Amino acid sequence: MNLYKYVSEAINNKLGFEAKLDVPKNRDFGDFSTNAAMVGAKNAGKNPRELANEYLPLLKELDFVADVSIAGPGFINIKIKDDFILQNATAPKQMVSEKPLTIDMDYGAYNVAKSLHIGHLRTSIVGDTFNRITKFLGHKTFSWNHIGDWGKPMGLIIAWIERLHPELPYFQNDFDPSKPVDYEIDEKELNNYYPQASALSKTDSVFQARAQEIKAKFQAGHPGYFALYEKFLAISLRTMNNTVKRLNILPFDYDLGERNAAKYLEPVEKILREKNMIVEDDGAQIINVKRDTDNAPIPPYMWRDSRGADTYDSTDLAAVYCRKLKDNPDTIIYFTDLRQSLHFEQLFRAADMAGIYPYDKFEHIGYGTINGKDGKPFKTRDGNAAGLDDIIDIANEAVSARVAESGKKLDSETIKTIALAAVKFNDLLHDVKSDYIFDPSSITSFEGKTGPYILYTAVRLNSVLKRAGAQISKPEQFELSTEERNLLIEIMDFERTILSAYENRATDMIANYAYDLCQLTNNFYHNCPILRDDIPENIKAGRLYIAKLAFDTLATAIDLMGLKIPDEM
RNA sequence: GCGCCCAUGGCUCAAUUGGAUAGAGCAACAGAUUUCUAAUCUGUGGGUUGCAGGUUCGAGUCCUGCUGGGCGCGCCA
Predict the structure, then answer these.
(1) Strand B closer than 7 Å to the CB of A523?
(2) What pLDDT, on the 0 to 100 scale, is given for residue A346?
């Protein structure tokens, strides 16, 4: 049961108006409070406490109310009956939305032939958790991995391979796509090609020009380049798949990126031309998206660069067109780096002006940077920009060391599970918008507010439940201890939290909730022994029931965060 | 220069979107295990919420101005 919702509706019915219900920061005040008397006092021409006094008898009539009182300037504090809590607490279940929406989510955005870097971490983790939450609430989602598989890097990589192996048939005029080519690319080598080529292009203008030429021919359908591209694309897709598995995120509904979007450039251009939106400027074709009301200059949207090539701007707009056709979503949400805000503002305006998709149905959730302890973007010990694998490796090493130190013996799968939880929970814990500091040494400690703490709590509960073995059913009335009561109330707050996390696009809410739930659980665990001989049967049954509810609730939260509960730790 | 974002104990972060005595974790110190996993639990100290005004019953939260920091501003994605 969503206790907040239940109580709120009952109170509104009783009072005959919408009273804003709060959960007091200080639990000593009560389970709920409302400032209705303070808000209404002015209109009623009464002082708040006086008005509150008029509401009291009505609220006392509600059958779940144990106590109502007035405090401070006119707050009404409400305490719920223990037995009502015990009898109505339930573990969360997949919900059915009254107004199910179709939502397109764009996250991940992995690149072909470029290993994933630390920036991919947040888009993957936050996007995935938001996707899971949205599904849990009963909405329909489509996740899009908008792969970078069409732009300048493709030209650079092909040019680089040409430089290494100019004799390959891909580069000959008589290339025949039907004949197999005896050439295999090593995955590790492939990951080096782009950085190497990119570096060279900055110092060697001949090579740079060659890469640009190749990019243009490639996009125009050059058969040799395309065959080579297909070869390294296949390797990259496999790598991406491994990443998805390694991060334990849901498989994408679409692994379709720029190349797919490029197919829709033609119909989009037709629309843009009909509306006279494309303007020639300085050799490039641009779309003017500025408005009179802007208080800052908004640069134009680049439809085609001065060499006539597709751009990030054009494929992104075409991608919107494609999604509208395929999914017809109520909303399109992008999870990317905060620094791309201006790009998305431009995209949303362009799409709106073209009548492809309305401005106010787009959302861009920009996340901050993951920094090192020095406050600058996180780097590995050797001073390089950290790759996604580096982060996971660092966490794995730390967990291994911690386990060895404790004398426990855990298999490598369990260690990986714990390490991933450390990284993901830490990421989810922070407000998406703000930068955060990734400190490997605090990951090493695993004390307190960490992923391992969350998992440990679940493992402990699970251990008791397994040991108990007995059938667990709703107990008869028994006197709740403070720990039992607080835990049950938190369990009944799950739905409100998830809804709030969804509405605010704030995945950190679920991480913070999971932590609070764990604290209360460990409190309960410590103070309320279950399987001890001196515990009366009725209390034993009651505590087992509460432990089961806590476990199921925690397990749901853990699942929504994309973590896994190990068997032991 | 213009625009967006941020500033909360020594450190890292919260604060139900305007509510009551600003909460957690780390670090420090003191304690708890004949008992279901001590990666746990309990306690202590630590704050003029960057500065100055304003709005109101009430401000960390909203408005204005400063100071300090991050980011962005046409052919990268």
Answers:
(1) yes
(2) 96
